[in-house]
Amino acid sequence: MVASVSIMAQKVQTVDTDGNPVSYASISNADNGNIIGTTDLQGVLPDVGGVRSIAITHVAFKPQVVKVSELPADGRVTLTESDFDLPEITVEPKEYIYVQTYYRMFFMEDDTLFYYRAGLTDNEYNIPKKKLSASTRNFSRSGMGGFVRWLLDAIIGSKADQHSELSIENIAFNTSKSGLSLRPETDSRQAVLYGDSLVGFMVDDVQDHQRRISIDDRIFVRLYWNDRQSEKKQKKRAEREAKRKNVVSTRYLVYAMDDDHQCGISDFISSQIHDDYDQFSERHQKDIHNRLWIEVFTTDRAYCTRDELKARKRENKLKLNFESILEFERQHQIPPAPANTIEALRKIVED
Fold first, then answer.
1. Pick from 150, 169, 180, 261: CA 20 to 30 A from residue 285's CA?
2. Counting beta carbons within 10 angstroms of the beta carbon of residue 114, is it exposed (0 to 12), middle (13 to 18) or buried (19 or more)?
3. Looking at per-residue confidence, does 167 or 6 come out higher?
4. Which residues neighbour 323 within 8 Å (Cβ) at sequence distance 6 or greater?
């Protein structure tokens, strides 16, 4: 009987203080920092793998450590909204909106840190012309170094930079162009649909003046491109996807929301993107679990004239290196990255 109990799966479900599921929380082994998995769209991770305690992290909520033996029968864990918040802003009749975003990106092979990148992006929005432009500076390291790092900078790094650039469509949550629609579920939560398929949720947290959007990109992207690509391209895409197993692809966005439930370009708070999959590695001659995640945070914002915009960008210059990035995160109350990831990065930098 003891043996059978010990191998029972222990489910975890993450919820917010209103009981809404918190999608895409990262669950790791609190003893060694190794990632166990990510909760799904309904906030559920079916099994934590027999560990003693778990660490839960999320871009919109405070980190939390929980002993598995103290979990309730339904595995429910209530998360508290993060202390991280937007810098104050004064709405003024000026030509530009300036938003500085900070991002960090990790790429893991199994539990080994393979590639790391962090950067600062100056987003400037020309209000009269409705034009958004951005420029990014970054710091990166790779466990393989040299040519491999250059290649990853060129392929993955450029995508990470783009995710740190604000999108007008995302901020407005433009459902007409993406083919998405909303269906009310409760007073605070709406289902996000593509056709008749559930692809996410939008939660309006009135108390904390936040709008939080979770999207299952694995489902949404497949449906979106099936409507828009030729049969030949769909077949090639299916062949690529067939090489990957246990695919998880998620996106989570957080905005400040005013009393009229409106979000503007200056109201972006944070976002996270997680991509997980297993794929056979010729180098290792076995299946390797690949994990890529990107987290983005707003660290400065203001309405500006052209001259004020230039001055703001000059003031926000930062020499990007390992120590300055950690200090920047502390100063801006950005939730820390997993401890084992930071230690692995420290070793790469020292090597």
1. 150
2. buried
3. 167
4. none
Q: Distance (Å, rounded) from C-alpha 224 to C-alpha 114?
A: 31
Percent of the chain whose pLDDT exceeds 70: 95
What's the chain's Rg over C-alpha atoms? 21
Q: Are 283 and 308 in contact (CB under 8 A)?
A: no
Site of tokens 């409760």: 186
d(CA 92, CA 76): 44
Q: Which phi and psi (to 5°) does residue 222 adopt?
A: -65, -45
Inter-axis angle of helices 217-228 and 231-242, nearest 10: 150
Cβ distance 259 to 92 under 8 Å?
no
Q: Give me 291's structure tokens.
A: 């994990």
* pLDDT band at residue 5 under the 50/70/90 scheme: very low
* Contact indicator for 170, 253 with CB cutoff of 8 Å: yes
Structure tokens at 77: 């864990």
d(CA 290, CA 278): 6
Spatial separation of the C-alpha atoms in residues 122 and 316, rounded to whole Å: 9
Q: Return the number of other C-beta atoms located less than 10 Å from residue 135's C-beta.
A: 12
Helix (H) or strand (E) holding 335: none
Please, where are the H alpha helices in the chain? 2-6, 146-152, 158-164, 168-172, 175-178, 217-228, 231-242, 306-315, 322-331, 339-350
For 201, half-sphere exposure in the C-beta direction (CA atoms, 13 angstrom radius) is 18
Go through the chain and tell me how many residues it has: 351
274 C-beta neighbours (distance < 10 Å), count: 19
d(Cα 92, Cα 48) in Å, to the nearest integer?
49
CA dihedral of residues 183, 185, 186, 191 (deg, nearest 10): -60
Q: What share of the chain is helix, strand, coil (3-state, %, to 5)?
A: 25, 40, 30
Are 226 and 218 in contact by the 8 Å Cβ rule? The answer is no
Q: Are 298 and 285 in contact (CB under 8 A)?
A: no
Least trusted range by pLDDT, from 39-43, 55-59, 206-210 = 206-210
pLDDT, tens digit (0-9, with 9 covering 90-100), for 52-99: 999 999 999 999 999 999 999 999 999 999 888 788 888 899 999 999
